[in-house]
Design goal:
By secondary structure, the chain is of the alpha+beta class. It has helices spanning 17-24, 29-55, 99-119, 168-182, 190-212, 270-277, 279-292, 299-309, 319-333, 339-350; strands at residues 12-13, 72-76, 86-90, 131-135, 144-146, 151-153, 222-223, 238-239, 248-249, 253-254.
């Protein structure tokens, strides 16, 4: 059984460091400067996250909680870097004129709704955790992140990245890091870190599909579609259907994600390639979802959710560990030798991960 008594000091961003590193080295200072500032800020937030984990965060008085109902608060940082910023919308307030505020509020709600409706989970921690978000963070800040307690969105630089509240799957991705924090608490390095990232991509995509009413066949399986500016040759940050094909751009370079273990990248950067090698379990989930058909948040999503929250996923789990647990979960929830178990076994075999 995994224990979650001491949370890993995970600081999670949607844009991988290797993308920002490349941007920061560009000869055009208009592209490089925002990336450099973002990397500097991310390093500071990563340190703060580690310290908060070590010494503990001050306890906040929780609001009166109505089970099964979200409690959302959106703040505006006013392009400064002090969190949370000025409160601009609370739970039940009418939409205002700021599209970023409205999108953040809606995305928090969409994430809450998917977890509540599909899996009976009451917010991120399962106990009605308030959902807080800050928009307009920093100057041309090229990222969005979950800091262990709230969501934070930059506006992007307008040249490479647009407003980070635009894709609802980005919001769902980051909030799912919170779900993982409160459940399996996967270590953020190597294969367990790549699983951490993949689970956020999986449920981020499911939140988008649920919101749009899409079946597995209808979905684009892209993470961050709509986030890249028009000048970028690409369609998203990642593709779960075809890892390695999300972008191929003269500034960003080519999407480095592998789709099978044959392309697994051994690296010391990005916590052992957590944003790169996540393409392998991402494709496995896509294969399961499309093989089973229908709504991906139902059978395939339920299997992945059962593993994430079931207590058997160790903090330092490998891809093979996770694969075996998904086979067991499919057999337990559905039928032995049924189509669910068969789809899971075939998917992991296709990406080169042993599952039995």
């Amino acid at each position: 059984m995994t224990t979650t008594g001491g949370f890993q000091p995970v600081f999670c961003t949607i844009v991988p460091p290797h993308v920002l590193d490349r941007l920061a080295q560009h000869e055009d200072s208009g592209l490089a400067a925002p990336a450099r500032r973002t990397l500097e800020r991310d390093a500071l937030e990563r340190t703060r996250r580690r310290l908060t984990t070590l010494i503990g965060a001050p306890a906040a008085a929780p609001p009166e909680h109505t089970a099964g109902k979200p409690y959302r608060t959106v703040y505006d940082a006013g392009h400064q870097e002090s969190l949370p910023g000025r409160k601009v919308r609370g739970e039940g307030d009418e939409p205002g004129q700021d599209a970023s505020v409205n999108r953040a509020y809606a995305g928090l709600g969409a994430t809450f709704e998917l977890y509540r409706t599909a899996y009976g989970r009451d917010s991120i921690d399962g106990k009605g955790l308030p959902l807080d978000a800050t928009v307009h963070f920093g100057q041309d800040y090229d990222n969005a992140f979950w800091n262990g307690g709230q969501m934070v969105f930059g506006d992007g630089d307008g040249e490479i990245f647009l407003d980070f509240t635009i894709p609802v799957d980005v919001i769902g991705h980051e909030l799912t890091h919170g779900v993982t924090q409160y459940t399996a608490n996967l270590a953020y390095f190597g294969q367990s870190g790549a699983l951490n990232e993949s689970l956020s991509d999986v449920f981020g995509s499911l939140i988008k599909q649920y919101t749009l009413g899409q079946t597995a066949a209808d979905a684009d399986w892209l993470i961050g579609a709509g986030l890249l500016a028009p000048r970028v040759t690409g369609k998203a940050l990642r593709s779960m259907k075809e890892p390695g094909t999300a972008y191929d751009d003269d500034v960003l370079g080519k999407d480095p994600q592998p789709s099978t273990m044959d392309g697994y990248v051994n690296t010391g950067r990005d916590n052992g390639g957590v944003h790169i090698n996540s393409g392998i379990p991402n494709r496995a989930f896509y294969l399961v979802a499309t093989a089973l058909g229908g709504n991906a948040w139902e059978r395939s999503g339920q299997i992945w959710y059962d593993v994430l929250t079931g207590g058997g996923l160790e903090a330092e789990a490998t891809f093979a560990d996770f694969a075996r647990l998904t086979v067991a979960a499919a057999r337990t929830r559905y039928t032995e030798d049924g189509e669910e178990q068969d789809a899971v076994l075939k998917a992991w075999e296709q990406v080169g991960v042993p599952a039995s």
